[in-house]
Amino acid sequence: MAQNPSSAPDTSRRSERSRRAIYDAALALVAEVGYPKTTIEGIASRAGVGKQTIYRWWSSKADVLLEAFLDLSDQAAEAAGQKPYTIPDTGDLAADLKNVLRATVDELGDPAFEAPSRALAAEGVVNEELGRRFVAQLLEPQLQLYVDRLRAAQETGEVRPGIDPRIALELFVSPLAQRWLQYTGPITYEYTDTLVDYALHGLAPR
Amino acid sequence: MAQNPSSAPDTSRRSERSRRAIYDAALALVAEVGYPKTTIEGIASRAGVGKQTIYRWWSSKADVLLEAFLDLSDQAAEAAGQKPYTIPDTGDLAADLKNVLRATVDELGDPAFEAPSRALAAEGVVNEELGRRFVAQLLEPQLQLYVDRLRAAQETGEVRPGIDPRIALELFVSPLAQRWLQYTGPITYEYTDTLVDYALHGLAPR
Amino acid sequence: MAQNPSSAPDTSRRSERSRRAIYDAALALVAEVGYPKTTIEGIASRAGVGKQTIYRWWSSKADVLLEAFLDLSDQAAEAAGQKPYTIPDTGDLAADLKNVLRATVDELGDPAFEAPSRALAAEGVVNEELGRRFVAQLLEPQLQLYVDRLRAAQETGEVRPGIDPRIALELFVSPLAQRWLQYTGPITYEYTDTLVDYALHGLAPR
Amino acid sequence: MAQNPSSAPDTSRRSERSRRAIYDAALALVAEVGYPKTTIEGIASRAGVGKQTIYRWWSSKADVLLEAFLDLSDQAAEAAGQKPYTIPDTGDLAADLKNVLRATVDELGDPAFEAPSRALAAEGVVNEELGRRFVAQLLEPQLQLYVDRLRAAQETGEVRPGIDPRIALELFVSPLAQRWLQYTGPITYEYTDTLVDYALHGLAPR
DNA sequence: ATTTAATCGAGACGGTACGTCGCGTCTTTTG
DNA sequence: CAAAAGACGCGACGTACCGTCTCGATTAAAT
Asked: Which DSSP state fits A137?
C-alpha cells in the first residue's frame, strides 16, 4: 500500500493545534518585527512547531500569512456579527457611502490590521499569483458590497442607469486605497467625504 | 570641524563609472530575474564592482533601485525632449485627459518600466521612508501636471471653481493605479476613457 | 535541566560522512596551498559541505586542522601496527635512540606530515590554548616513550640514577625540534647521532 | 626624465618620521591585540600614515614587524651598553652558562619582547624566508656568543676538544627554546641550571 | 484495545546571500 | 616626488535562513 512519495499529506490527521499556533505566531511576528524580518524559522520556533510542519501545509511565507490573515478576518467578521456583509441603505446614497468609508478609514488605522495587510498588499504587487488571491478572497468580496449598493441606487434613480457600478465604485475607493498604499496624501473623514461628493456629482459644472 | 566618526565617504572621489554600471546592473537584473532574486552580490558582480562600493553609497537594495530608476526616468525624460513636462491643453479637457491616460496605459505595460516600478511600489508599501521618497521624487511631480491642467480648466469654466484639483485628479488616476498595483481589473483604453467620463460628470443624474 | 541557550548541537545526529570529508579537505588544502591560503570556505567547498557545518562543530580553522591531524596520526599509528607505541630496547641505549631519531628525521621530511604539523606548531606558538592541546595530544605522548626508555636505561645502569628523564630527553629531542621549527641548521642522521652522543656523555672531559 | 614605473623608491627622500611611527605602531598593536589582529590598515592609521607608505617600503606585515623588532633590539642593546655582546668568562663555564640562561629566562618573560618575538617566531615556522631572516639577524648572532664561550672553554680544557660548539650549545639552548615556543614545560632557573649540568656531564655514569 | 502509519517537534545538512573587514592597487591633493 | 587620504575590485569572514532530510515520539484512524 505504498503512497505517492512526498505529496498529498493526509488532511484528516492534521494538527489543528499547530495550525492555530502558526497563524498566531505569523501575525504576531509581522506586527512586531515587520514582514521582511518575519522568517519561517521564526514562525516555527515561536509556534513551537517543526519547520517541516509549515512546509508540509504551505508553500511560502506569504502563503502562511495570507491564510492567517483570512482566518483573522473571518474571526473578526464573526465576532462583529453581520455588520460588514452589506452596506446600509437609508435611501441617502451619499450619506451611506460616507459612513462606510469613514469606517474604512478607522480600520486602515488599526495597527492589528495594518501590518499584515500592508505586507500582503506589498507582496501581491510583485507576486501576481498571490496578488490575485489576495484580491479574490479579501478585496473583491468587499467591493461587491459597493456594487450592490450602487445597483440599488440605480433602481431608485440616485445613480444614472448607464453607469457601470464596478467601475463607479473605484472613483471613491481607489483614491483612498492609493493614499493608504503609497502615502500619497493624508487620510481623513473630510477627504473621503469629499471623494464621495466629487464622484457623485462630477467635476464639471452642471 | 571634526567629522562624524567612521563615515561620510568623499563624494568628490566617487567613481562615476561604477555608479553607472551599478544602475545598469540593478535595472537589468530586476527586469530579468525579478526584485526578490536580485541581490546586492548579483548587482556587484554584474557591474564588475566590489560589494563595498555599493554599501559605501547606498543603504539597501531598494535604495539602489530607487536611484537607478530615478536616473532612468531622468534620462528618458531628457531623451523625449519636453513632452512630458506638461499636459497638452487643446481646450477639450476630457480629450486631453483621455490622451494622457492612454499613454500611461501604454507605459504601464512597458516591461522596461514595469519590473522596477512594481518592485519599488511594493517596497514602498511596506517601507514608509522609501515609499515617501518614491512618491515625492517620481509620482508627485507627475500628479502636479494634472493639477496644472485642472486649474487651467477651472479658469475656462470646464471644471467647477470649488473643486480641489489635487483630490480631483485621484478620481481617474487612482483607479488606474490600483488596477495596476493590485490586479483588481483589466487595464484598457476603454476603461480609462470611462473613468474620465465618470469623473467629469459624476454618477448622479444631472 | 535546561540547556545553554542557542548552542550545543546534537552529537548523535552528526554526519560522519561530512566529518571525514572535512578532515580530508583540510589536510589536502594545507598540503597544496599552505595554511594561510587554506580558508574555511575552501575547506567547505572542497568537502562538499556547508560552511555552517564546519562552524557548528569547530571554532576555528586551527581547530579543524588539529582534529584532522590527530585523526590522521591515529590512522597512521593504527595502520603501522604497534610500532610507535614503544621505543625498542636492544640493551644499547645510544643505538636505540639514534634509530628512533633517524626515523623522526625521515618523518619530518615527509611532505604529508610537514605542512599540517608546521601549521599547527606555528599556530600553537601564538595561540597558547591550541599550543597546549597540540602538545598534550600529540607531542607529549611521544615524549613519554623516551621517558620510558630512559627509565629502563636507569635500571640497567646505562643512565645515572639521579637524572630526570623528562628533562634528559630534551637534550636530544629539542635541538632537532628547533632546527626543524626555526631553520637554525641542517637536519641529518649525522646530526642526530651526534646529539645522542653528546647528550649521553656530556661536553666535559671524563 | 621618466622613471621606471612602480619600482625603486628613492631612499634619500624617505621620511624618517614615518618610519619610526610605523615601527612604534606595529609593536604597540602586536602587544595590544596580538599579531593576527594587527593589520596594515591598523598600523597605518595608528601611525598617522598612508597605507601606500607602508607598501612602498615593506612587502608584508611580517616584514614590518621583523624590522621594527630588530630596531627595538638594537635600541635595547644600545641602551644596555655592551652587556650582551659577549658571554662573561669567569673561568667557571657552568656558572657562566647558568647566569646567561637565567637572564634569558627573564627576558622570555618580559611582555614587551614576548608578543612580537612570538609572532615572528610563529610566522617564521610557516614562512621559511622570514624564518631564515629571523634566525640570521636575531638568533644566530646570539648563538655565536655561546660558540665563542665554548671555544674558550675548549682551550682551558673545560670542554672536550672534539666537541662541535655549534651543536653543543643546542643541548641547553634548544630545550629552553622549545619549552618557550611550544609550552612543553615550565621555565625556571632550576630547569636551566639542570640543563647546563646535564649537558656538561652527560646522562651516562662516568 | 491494539496496531500501524502519518504527522509532529527537533534540528543537522548543503546552500545562498548577507553586511563587514582587510588586502593590495590606484588616484587625487598637499607640502 | 614622497606622503596623507581613502575609493576601488576583490576575497574571506562568521551569521541568518532557506528548503530538504532524517530522527524518535505522539497520536488518530483502521483494525
From this structure: I
Cell numbers linked to C45: 567547498
Mean pLDDT calculated for residue range C107-127: 91
- Chain C residues with beta carbon closer than 8 angstroms to that of D36: 126
Q: How far apart are CA C92 and CA B155, in angstroms?
A: 121
Whose grid coordinates read 546592473? B25
CA of B64 to C1' of F21 (A): 38
In this complex, do C168 and D198 lie within 8 Å of one another by their Cβ atoms? Answer: yes
Superfamily of domain D15-65: Homeodomain-like (1.10.10.60)
Dihedral through CA A51, CA A56, CA A62, CA A67, nearest 10?
Answer: -110
- At D48, the pLDDT band (50, 70, 90 cuts) reads very high
Contacts of C99 (CB under 8 A, 6+ apart): C88
Q: Please state the domain extents for chain C.
A: 15-68, 86-201
A23 DSSP 8-state letter: H
How many Cα atoms sit within 13 Å of A183 on the Cβ side?
Answer: 19
CB-based contact C126 D118, cutoff 8 Å? yes
- Mark the ranges of chain B whose per-residue pLDDT is less than 50: 1-5
Class at the top of the CATH hierarchy for domain C15-68: mainly alpha
Grid coordinates given for B45:
558582480
Mutate to test the interface with A, among B33, B184, B188, B200 (most CBs of A within 10 A): B184
Domain spanning B12-68, CATH architecture: Orthogonal Bundle (1.10)
pLDDT given for residue A204 in this prediction: 84
For residues D72 and D76, give the distance between their C-alpha atoms in angstroms, rounded to a whole number: 6
Instruction: Quickly list H helices, B2-158.
Output: 16-33, 40-47, 51-57, 61-79, 93-109, 111-126, 128-134, 140-156
CATH level 2 (architecture), domain A86-201: Orthogonal Bundle (1.10)
What confidence category does residue D10 fall into, taking pLDDT thresholds of 50, 70 and 90? confident
Q: Mean of the per-residue pLDDT values for chain B?
A: 92
What is the mean predicted confidence (pLDDT) over C69-90? 82
Q: Do A123 and B118 touch (CB under 8 A)?
A: no
B12 DSSP assignment: G
Q: Render pLDDT for A66-92 as a digit per residue (tens, 0 to 9).
A: 999 999 988 887 877 655 579 999 999
Percent residues over pLDDT 90 in chain B: 83
Q: What CATH number labels A14-61?
A: 1.10.10.60
> Nearest CA to B145 among B195, B106, B104?
B104
The residue in chain C having the minimum alpha-carbon distance to the alpha carbon of residue D197 is C202
Q: Which residue is it, cell 602538545?
A: C135
pLDDT digits 0-9 by tens, B106-165:
999 988 889 999 999 999 999 999 999 999 999 999 999 999 999 999 999 999 999 999
One-letter amino acid of D63: D
